[in-house]
Amino acid sequence: MNNQKIAIESLSMDLMRVALGYQRGSISMAKRFSKEAQKRCSEIDASHVKPYFAKILKKLTLVLRDSGKDRIAEDILMHSVICKNYAKKFC
Question: What is the average pLDDT score of the chain?
Answer without folding.
Answer: 88
